Amino acid sequence: DSGVTQTPKHLITATGQRVTLRCSPRSGDLSVYWYQQSLDQGLQFLIQYYNGEERAKGNILERFSAQQFPDLHSELNLSSLELGDSALYFCASSVEGRGRAETQYFGPGTRLLVL
Amino acid sequence: AQTVTQSQPEMSVQEAETVTLSCTYDTSENNYYLFWYKQPPSRQMILVIRQEAYKQQNATENRFSVNFQKAAKSFSLKISDSQLGDTAMYFCAFQSGGGADGLTFGKGTHLIIQP
């Protein structure tokens, strides 16, 4: 158990819909990262938040957005869903992530299926 | 942009044997970190080992060790006395030293330990 929690574990929805994935980082971690794992694209970095602020952006689509709240939990919002958005979405957290690369610890992931 | 290449899609060895997984990367940075993550059938991402580029000494964690060749941009993982529980996907990952970025992953190597 990494200490990172993600809800829900599974999500089934239809094309065009919007979903929210939630992540709680390890106690004391300030940075949260979101990743997408799909058969086509492999593991891709989407976005990073550090202490409530967006820190880095990866291959995140405009239909996707994220935020980190004052209690440091994070949400990833996916809208106008397409079949190709079906994937395993991971959240990871690290202690710092600002000025030094700390080890990222991954949550169990949310498996999203878009029908 | 960084790239990470794992040239072995799948490997199979007998239990108790030693196996080496290959990883090469491309970057123009001098300060960075390299990781190996393991993803068993449960899909959980588990950190195996971490290497700081500024450290010449190769990292070791019990049965796991790396051969880090900075000039050649090579970062291989050696698993000694392999066990059935080592069966998993293994991902090599790169992160910039500043911490303001996510991990860049290779496509993975599926390692199968045969009894």
Key attributes of the depicted protein:
heterodimer, A: 115 residues, mainly beta, seven-stranded mixed β-sheet, four-stranded antiparallel β-sheet, 11 strands, 0% helix, B: 115 residues, six-stranded mixed β-sheet, 12 strands, globular
Task: Give a verbal description of the structure.
The complex is a heterodimer of chains A (115) and B (115). Chain A has 115 residues and is an all-beta fold. In chain A, 0% of the residues lie in helices and 52% in strands. In chain A, the strands form two sheets. In chain A, strands 2, 4, 5, 6, 9, 10 and 11 form a seven-stranded mixed beta sheet that branches. Chain A has a four-stranded antiparallel beta sheet with strand order 1-3-8-7, with no helix packed on it. The termini of chain A are far apart. The mean pLDDT of chain A is 94. Chain B is 0% helix and 52% strand. In chain B, strands 2, 5, 6, 10, 11 and 12 form a six-stranded mixed beta sheet that branches. Chain B has a four-stranded antiparallel beta sheet with strand order 3-9-8-7, with no helix packed on it. With 115 residues, chain B is mainly β. Chain B has no helices and twelve strands. Chain B is globular, with a radius of gyration of 14 Å. Chain A binds chain B through residues 2, 31, 33, 35, 42-48, 50, 55-56, 58, 88, 90, 92, 94, 96-106, 108-109, 111, and chain B through 32-33, 35, 37, 42-47, 50, 91, 95-105, 107-108.
